[in-house]
Design a protein that fits this description.
Layout (H helix, E strand, L loop, with lengths): L7 H4 L18 E2 L11 H9 L13 H11 L6 E5 H13 L5 E5 L5 H8 L3 E5 L8 H7 L4 E7 L11 H10 L5 E5 L14 H7 L3 E6 L11 E5 L2 H8 L9 H12 L1 H24 L5 E3 L6 E6 L5 H10 L2 E2 L1 E3 L4 E8 L3 H24 L1
Parallel strand pairs: 1-11, 3-4, 3-5, 5-6, 6-7
Antiparallel strand pairs: 2-8, 7-8, 9-10, 10-13, 12-13
The protein binds pyridoxal-5'-phosphate.
The site of pyridoxal-5'-phosphate (PLP) has 13 residues, from helix 4.
Length: 372
Amino acid sequence: MNAPVAKPWVLDIAPYIPGRSTTDDGRKAVKLSSNENPLGTSPAARAAFERAATSLERYPDAAAHELRDALATHHDLDPARIIYGNGSDEVLHLAAGAFAGPGDEVIYVNYGFSVYPIAARRVGATPVVAPDNDYATDIGAILACVTERTRVVFIANPNNPTGTFATREEIARLHAGLRADILLVIDHAYAEYIDEAVDDGAMELARNAPNVLVTRTFSKLYGLAAERIGWGYASAAIIEAMHRIRLPFGITIAGTAAAIAALNDRDFADRTRAHNAKWRDWFNAEIARLGNAGLRAVPSQANFVLVLFEGDLTAQAAYQGLMDAGYIVRWLPGQGLPHGLRITIGTEAETRAVIDILNNLVADARNAAMSG
Ligand SMILES: *Cc1c(COP(=O)(O)O)cnc(C)c1O
């Protein structure tokens, strides 16, 4: 042995693939591949970020008092039961790290968020994939995967990359069907996009049940992906365990200031939600018009839509055609979706352009099929 040997479970990890922002030939493109906010960031958040430039020599508050207090006020929570991290990605890793290890099983759904297998394998746990039900989360299938070795169940609601939503009844059924020693992690990265009248009950479970963690992020609706601020809510015992393994200074002063300002800018959040709902509806209606060409939109409650290509135009050809036109979306063959593209809802102009390009590509593919 003449070099350090990485752990076998680490070598089993397929590295995370981030959304691209340049084309194959290196041109900067319109990026609709990472579910970022097309309206940018709250002006108040940007101003708070700029003010933080005066204290770069200081370590951040390791206990994140101000962030926890702001979140507790906004969401009516106990600040002592809020964990925070370098994006909600870190919080997801903390959940796996504190509650799973070698010999344990971690369940997540087919077509689930690609961080879950990484978080499970990183700690030596065994990932278990529950089958989907036409791309949606299948509660019965998850419960059927539970064994005595199950320690953590991850679900995202709405889910990424499918955009599908599990109802309050389904979440309640999942929780009721899990043993009390299994941690149920409900990833709410896109929860702010759900119709405000709709509540999946996840936060209520995190408030009251001893085995539920809800994670949230400032990266999506709040438009702060660059600043890496995520958080979670669970019982005091779960939070206490996660604190033991988090990075001591995992969130920055500037990011924290921006996040608190973003939280208080309800106007920006409302405008983002309204923009997304309007253009997602429009986008879905246009995809429905391409149904006879084999395109289908999976019903989405998030700020993106998974479009399936089941006709002459393949997802791969559509991905290339969009890229040639300067638009990058997410093609996910590595996640079992060679026939789908996950497309972020962009600005009005971007959303219209994607539909125009898809219409042209469909016509080209139809002509090629007829002449071929
Ligand atoms: C984007 C995303 C996250 C987290 O992002 P952070 O930037 O790390 O907060 C978590 N879960 C899902 C399902 C996501 O799509």
